[in-house]
Batch of 2 targets.
Target 1
Amino acid sequence: MARSTSKDAQALFNSLRSAYAATPTSLKIIDLYVGFAVFTALIQVVYMAIVGSFPFNSFLSGVLSCVGTAVLAVCLRIQVNKENKEFKDLPPERAFADFVLCNLVLHLVIMNFLG
Amino acid sequence: MQLVSACTKTLLDSRGKAAAMEKFSISILLIISLLPFLCSSFSQESPTDRRILVLLDDFSLKSSHSIFFSSLKSRGFDLDFKLADDPKLALQRYGQYLYDGLVLFSPSVERFGVALDLAAVLDFVDSGHDLIVAADASASDLIKSIATECGVDFDEDPSALVIDHKTFAVSEIEGDHTLIAADDFIQSDVILGKTKIEAPVLFKGIAHSINGANGLALKVLSASPSAYSANPSSKLSSPPSLTGSTISLVSVMQARNNARIMITGSLDMFSNRCFRSGVQNAESAIKYDKSGNEQFVAELTKWIFHERGHLKAVNVRHHKLGETDEPAMYRIKDDLEFYVEIYEWSGKSWEPYVANDAQVQFYMMSPYVLKTLSTDQKGLYHTTFKVPDVYGVFQFKVEYERLGYTSLSLSKQIPVRPFRHNEYERFITTAFPYYGASFATMAGFFIFSFVYLYNK
């Protein structure tokens, strides 16, 4: 039984890998960016757990910048993905422009809150 | 014209004289009205010659205790001798006290003269004046109740005297061991003076003990462990209630308003006979030519009448380190300096008080900083400390209570504010990773947007 579940897990993982390889490159770039942002946020949380939350506003602004930009990137991915029926009529340039503007506002807020 | 001018001149002269007369009489009136204020009690500002009322049972005490009274007079006191039941007795008139101290050498008085009673004596003490009460074997209930109000309980048995079969004074006449030679003094240079009293003190009278609930009364002269209080002429039917060192022969009390009261069970202790006689302790058999009574009584009355051990603390100042004027508010983590001057009344003038244990607290519901003040030997005490990292309304508190000294209790309020938003350090070191992460995210976003746009 254990062997079969591990074999199933392996089969699942291989099918995921092959499916993912089929996605367009632009989406893969977005995924890479999201991964980078989440990784940076995790580093900050681990650092806060070690050192303590003394300038709490700085901690919040750092984590918010990473999480916020990750969320915006995910929204971009949803809107740009051609397999998504919901956003069929939305031009991808419009989606990218929204992404850039929202990131600008986000980083303005972050710089203010960073102290 | 000239006539008119001459007339006006003479008129003016006479009016001038009248005006001068008026001015003169007004100034006389003013001076007279100020006189009562010049003879006030021991106030910090004018502790000059003081009037003491001495109440006696009969005037023979004036001669039998003449050495004591003349020593008081030579120290500058005005003594007013009256019989205790004199109907014209008055401690105060029109709300002002006529005397600054009261000496009750009238143990057997049942009722004072009309204007004086237990409540009046207690009011006298409550208003800051000093009191000496001496009882003896004939002590009345009135004297005993005055003592009880001051925290000292005399033996209730009216015929009991202090008897000590081991440390009595050897004498030819008195064989019942009621004249005792006591030398168990309190250890205090303030109360009894710097010179050690070598000879024991002769005492013949009734015993008292300090009420256990009273924290302000002190035993200045205690009886030896072999003393007890009982009737010398009858056999003891039950063990005596007061024995040993709990018997106090002379007690003092310093009230919270710094009035000082001395209570003793022996009027003979002040008499010329005891002052002049030699004393030999039956136990130790050392013979002294002169008893310690005169020195003991003189030093103790100096303490009672505030010629020693009366402190005042003035001139509380504080300022930030490096500045000279007093700010209205401090900021957390400021450095500040605190100054206070403490003086002791020496009987004639305010001398600088020198001690190394005065402390100041920086207090807000509990002391955040407690520092010992260092002195420059001239009465100025100062210290430096850093304001704690807590903001609020603090007080500089100096609380000084030592045996035999008046208590000092000063406080000065000062608020402490937190940092203003521009008084923090500009870049906090522990937050550098967060700064770095934010900038890294911005750079990442910039690079990503290029890569995404120009990706074919």
Target 2
Amino acid sequence: MIGSPDVVAFTKEDEYGQTNPDPYALPEEFSIPLHPLADSNPWAKTSYAKFTKDFILISEFSEQVGPQPLLTIPDDPKVCGTFDLNYFSLRIMSVDYQASFVGHPPGSGYPRLSFVEDSRVVLGDSKEGAFAYVHHLTLYDLEARGFVRPFCMAYVSADERKIMLQFQELSLRFSQASECLKAGNRRAFAKELQRKLRDLEYTHSVLQREEGLQREAGPQCIYSAHAVEKANELANVEKSIYEHRDLLRQISSYHCRPRRDPHAVTCQKCMTECLSECEALLDKYAKLANPFNYTDKGGKGEERQSQIDVEGGEEEVEEDEDEGVKRRPSYTPQLIKAKSAKCFDKRLKTLQELCDQTFYEATVQLLKETERSFRGDLCYLHTCRLDKTLRRRQRVTNFLFEEDLGDDDEDEGGTLRPFCAVNHAVDNYTLLNPPPIVLGPEPLELDSLEPPDPLDPASETSHTQESELGVGESHLESSPSDQTLETQESSEETKGSFSSDKSGLGPAEKQQSLASVRSKPHDPDSDLTLDPDHNTGLERESSSEETTAGEDEGDTGGDQTPVSLLEVVSELEASREDDCERGSDGACEMESDLLVPIDTACCMAQEGFLYEASAPEADPHLDQSSHHQPFQTLVVNQEPQALLPLQDDYAVGSPCSESPAAGLELPVGLLGDAVSRTSVEDGSDCTMSASTGSERAASPLGYGGVVTLRQRKKAGQGALRFVRQYPFAIQALWCLLSGRTLVVFGADEGRVRRLVAALALFVPGPGKCGERVQAWLSCPFTLTDLQRWKLIGLQRVASPVGSSMLYSLSRYSRYICILDADQKTLRCPPYHGQLLANIADHRTYIRRGSTYFLHVQSTLCRLAAKAFLFTFTHHLHLPVSSTEGPEVVEGRRRCFLQEQLGLGEEDSQILLYLSQLITQQYLQPATGSNAAAPCFSFNYTTSVLYKI
Amino acid sequence: MTADLGWSQTESCFGGFSGVGKLRAPWSLFVSTLSLLRLQKSPVLCIGEEQPKNWFTELQVLKGHFDIVRFLVQIDDFRCASAGDDGLVLVWNIETGERLQELRGHSQQITAITTFTCNDGLMSHTSLITASSDRSLSLWDPDTGNRVQTISDLQSSVKCLLVLERLCVWVSGGEELCVWNKDFQLQCHRQNHSDTGITALIELPKNCIAAAMDKEIMIYRLTVSPDSSVSVAELRCLSDHQDQIRALININDGLFASGSHAGELILWDAVDWNILAYEHILWEESQTCAQAEIRLGAPKPSEMSIQHLTTNGQLVLAAVGSGLYVYSVLTKTVVAYRKVAHDSNILHTMLLSDSELMSCSEDGSVRMWEIQDLPLPAEPASAGFFGMWTFSRSNKQTGPPSKKIVDVPNIRTLELTGDLIGHSGAVQMFVSFKENGLVTCSADHLLILWKNGERQSHLRSLALFKKLEENSGL
């Protein structure tokens, strides 16, 4: 007995999660958990599911054997473990919300193809601990009952919330897959019809000939039982021909039919191709041509047809079919028995046969893609998505610390591409109706789901079409098919269930959602202006984002690290206002200037203003740093002689691997074997001959390609290790972040490379492929190298080469910091700031590399936000009125950095450097094209030698 | 501060042989001894990394040449041209660092380059004249990069060029002296007797020019006849230098100066070509050491050779070997000096103001100096490092110094205020664009554009907000 599956109610998160809290209950922090063991691990909840990973299941409701699983993605028996696929298929197929109306609608003489829209539903089996997004679809099969074969694709997961919250995306992706399957299916169906029609016409002609013979034989034969039977048969065949022709007409009119499915996605090109193909067929069979002329055709094309089937190339098919229409049939017609075999003794077509092979493969590919993209915990997915969306908004600063988004965009395009099985260009596709916002709990997702070019005229027009046609006509049309008994029954059970069938979404609402989609005509990226009007809007938006984030995952609520750039900006703005208020005690004479609103009109007035360079006067921060000479907190060894043994080492190049500091390396076991594996990998992928000279092009040696998130996370481990191991890590990080080239100097290539890989995390604007990082260099470097690379791994060698290398090291020492990996020393300007203290704390409690990586990311993101604000705040760089001199601006800038951002001199340098990078990046398209050399900024400060 | 000391020592140690750093690689083991020697010799010369007065905090490396870049000329406020041994002339925009033009045509190294400004009433147009070892002369338009005129198959290669804008002619000097008009037509020429040929040319009043040839200075007069043909007459030969003349400059309308390989600096009257002052620069070693210690040999001539002279009208700055020497024209005395200003020969100098000067050297560095009063007047200039005489032409002697001025009353010191390190070869020349920056060219095939980082960042900010406005938002 098939039990009714749990249909999961789709409710708002707040209602769902915390239903009317008991006012008398103890606050949560005082209550004793009932099941401490279960609660200790929030992920333990999912452990009673019989499968370990999410998977995609495709099942069919076979008219012969009932529900049966067809395949899983990934196609690995391990995936579902002991989970009973048969049972689960049965459960998910037992609820079909599709309006599967079969048969003759009243008033029409021919059987009608039911144009059934897909249905999407979330089902759960609490006993099995399995939840599924189920996408029902029907494919046409001439031999099937009612010409339809019900299928379903299900995304099975142990986490119900994951499915609920990803519903939109799942729906979109499965719709794509479904469209793909159906497109292929229509093609195959049309082909099948064609074949059938040919058979029928052949049979018809044979029967006619027989009848003619009978007629010739004499009138007495006409009325014989045999003749009557023949005549009936002929009539039947004729009727059948008409029916099939009508089917063909129906299938080719498929495209003209307005879609009622709000999630349907189609490829325009596929559509038109399919349409023209069907029309060609339709033309061919439109009239019952002289049946006798059929006999002279046929018989030759058999092997040809099979060949076509193998090739599967659609153009070929089309061409051949055209030819076939004119010259020879590609199929040997068969005589059709009046009584066809009943369903149980024939073999049903497989899914592959039902759809074109190409389309089938594309679908599987698409589903695989889907499975891959949904891998991981909901929390992870959500953060990723959030991260991606936010990063898309901060294009100006992304290049600093984020990995390349262009890659992701491609990925996005990639997921959209294969749904059009024949790989048409991405821009061909049309999202008939973007997922409605009302249903989605995450407004954020809208961005990611929107087509890459929202202004694409094609999609625009389709929107309007939809709004004109869809709302009006679909309402009319939906009535007959939707109101079947079956649906009514099921809809009773599923009251309040979340199904995207339009039951819950009236035309008005739909229009509303459309309107809301259309009311966002401009690119979301253009929002990042400092225009005050926009700003308020943005703040509102970002706050709404925050609330959704809080709703979605309770744990982000308490997180103190804002991820959103805008959030940080608004936060800063707020704190700035606070500061301004506080600053009224007269401490800051720039106060009045600081109250100047950020106004772009300002720069309009001051456009031509150029201030005279102030006379070269002592840089105040230089003075300051010299006052800081007596160190108290930092571990600095101040022996002037300390260098002498070092020099000897340099000169003779003695291998320093046996240095006493070697013992300071952390035991590998502490950090887990992931580290050692990482290091081995990092060490092995490089060849010794990698570096030959500074003249070669900047090859992305550091990573050997686009730096991926995974590599960066791995690097996080190394960075954590570095921070824990070296007390002067903070200085090293400061050097990198303030734009001073860091040279990692060592004899052991593996160690140097590891250090470089770890430190590369902190190189601002490392380039798409880590162009600013040189992992291993074994020749002396020049100034151009310093300009090009911000992090260099340098080989310590004995012999002449080594000395010239040392020479370049000392010669350019004012531009670089030197981290000696063998001696464990760092030579760089002193840093006393606090900004980096939280990412370079060598007593940090963070133990995992990826945690540390995220920690670093959030800090760097914060920095980037500050730098963004600093860069684009007009009055910090340019005078507000013409009477202001450059020193006023300078003072204002200083005041902003110190008072408002609370940055010391050295921390300000980080911000200034980041700001400079942002400026350069922003200006680059204008000036960068003509191969002007990049600028290299530095300052003259004394360096000190840090030791462990 | 102590922590710093260690590194400044190493710095000076490496700075010590930096000029030939590339070649010295096999001698690396002598590093420490060398550095010790250097430390004793010039303990103050290392300024270290803290240079508050050095405002060149940004640089751009300009690539394009394939060989030593020897010449830089300023075309206008934002352009300069560089030329070198690869025969290429490149025109640069020093505001952006772009390479504007590439003037190709010479097959061998460029030996002289100068700007040629044509003033036709309203417009003034600047062209470039180049001379090359391939014995050709070319006129270029730096705006279009076209070779406007060219003369090849000269008898000898031209070593120096002089434009006389007043007469609208220009003069080329080599083994022969040729006068050309602005259309590159030879007006007249004069063969020289000297083997070395003319190495320097300057313009003197009354249509005269002075040409340095080996140890002599020839004075020529150009006369323009009514039919605008030009003729050259030899007026006087000044042969007062004991050694080859290395530098010849105009000081002001009434004075010019010449410096020789032997360290003689002579100030001449520009009108009647009399000697106004004669200065023989001898560094200390050549005298005291020679007497007191066992000398392995005389000081190398290059140690007192006047490599370059520059002036601002009141002061003459002479690059003598690796030292600097500031001479006041008014008082005819030495104002300040630095015996070892660089680790190697100084190639080019410039007076930025009355108190600031700049020098570049074979050691690959550019150094900035300030003429400062001695902190303690009581401390004399530690027994003058140079002998000094002031003679009139008539009683000129060549004997040993009769009187050694030990105390120059108001002598001041040259303090190092900053250095620019970037080139890995000898810095051949530099051109200052005032606040816009400084261009240096070097034997390492590179040009470096040194800029004021603060000013640049301000300019970038301006550009940023301008673009922001153009794009109307981000």
